[in-house]
Design brief:
The structure is a single chain. The radius of gyration is 30 Å and the shape is elongated. It is mainly α. It is 75% helix and 0% strand. The longest helix is centred in the middle third of the chain and has 36 residues, at 33-68.
């Protein structure tokens, strides 16, 4: 990103170095089986929690929607206000 803003050889050099480091880290992550396994467990755990929260949110939305439905008998409306 720096090379896009700053037009100097040092900025370009640093940008290239950052990209190289990300490539190196990606290679380390791919070759590290325990890390892959742990990330998989973490992803499954997060998905399980999201499923639980999703069902709770659905229940909450159903409860809120029920508040907007008319309640009871609509024929017996009582007028509100002052009648002299």
């Amino acid at each position: 990103m720096t090379a896009n803003v700053l037009n100097s050889t040092r900025a370009i050099s640093m940008s290239v170095q950052v990209v190289r480091e990300f490539i190196r880290l990606r290679g380390i992550a791919r070759s590290h089986d325990p890390l892959k396994m742990k990330l998989g467990q973490l992803a499954r755990s997060v998905n399980a929690r999201l499923d639980k929260h999703e069902s709770q949110i659905d229940g909450l939305l159903d409860a809120v929607e029920s508040l907007f439905e008319p309640a009871g008998d609509s024929d017996s409306k009582r007028l509100i206000g002052f009648a002299p």
